[in-house]
TrEMBL record:
<dbReference type="Pfam" id="PF13237">
    <property type="entry name" value="Fer4_10"/>
</dbReference>
<keyword id="KW-0677">Repeat</keyword>
<keyword id="KW-0479">Metal-binding</keyword>
<keyword id="KW-0411">Iron-sulfur</keyword>
<keyword id="KW-0249">Electron transport</keyword>
<protein>
    <submittedName>
        <fullName>4Fe-4S binding protein</fullName>
    </submittedName>
</protein>
<dbReference type="GO" id="GO:0016491">
    <property type="term" value="F:oxidoreductase activity"/>
</dbReference>
<feature type="domain" description="4Fe-4S ferredoxin-type">
    <location>
        <begin position="1"/>
        <end position="29"/>
    </location>
</feature>
<dbReference type="InterPro" id="IPR017900">
    <property type="entry name" value="4Fe4S_Fe_S_CS"/>
</dbReference>
<dbReference type="GO" id="GO:0051539">
    <property type="term" value="F:4 iron, 4 sulfur cluster binding"/>
</dbReference>
<feature type="domain" description="4Fe-4S ferredoxin-type">
    <location>
        <begin position="30"/>
        <end position="58"/>
    </location>
</feature>
<dbReference type="InterPro" id="IPR017896">
    <property type="entry name" value="4Fe4S_Fe-S-bd"/>
</dbReference>
<dbReference type="InterPro" id="IPR050572">
    <property type="entry name" value="Fe-S_Ferredoxin"/>
</dbReference>
<dbReference type="GO" id="GO:0046872">
    <property type="term" value="F:metal ion binding"/>
</dbReference>
<keyword id="KW-0408">Iron</keyword>
<keyword id="KW-0813">Transport</keyword>
<keyword id="KW-0004">4Fe-4S</keyword>
Length: 114
């Protein structure tokens, strides 16, 4: 599903007007894609003049860079190498837990009979 980078969105509403299924709302002056309505046609991505709407594969790259930037900020606050290593290990543990939750959720979703 497409995703809006709110920092880049200029509130032009072009994506709202172009969406064939009305899956984009404006919330606090920024575009918000309603995943339950979105048909993943990509028209919003093409029409956005500032490229604030990202494709799935771009979202992953954006979020990874965002997390790394935040972690680097936290690392710069710590002076000792030992504290930095502990912080990195802590982040790895948290992410592994999130990964496990997502994996188990996906498995449960696959078991749902409709």
């Amino acid at each position: 599903m497409p995703w809006v980078n709110k920092k880049e969105c200029i509130s032009c509403r072009k994506c709202v007007k172009k969406c064939p299924v009305d899956a984009i709302d404006m919330v606090k002056g920024k575009a918000l894609i309603l995943n339950e309505k979105c048909i993943n046609c990509g028209k919003c991505i093409k029409i956005c003049p500032v490229k604030a709407i990202l494709k799935d594969r771009e979202i992953v790259k954006f979020k990874v860079q965002s997390k790394l930037k935040a972690l680097k900020g936290s690392l710069s606050e710590n002076k000792s190498k030992k504290a930095k290593k502990r912080l990195i290990k802590s982040h790895i543990r948290q992410m592994k837990m999130q990964q496990k939750v997502l994996s188990e959720t996906i498995n449960e979703l696959k078991r749902i009979k409709l």
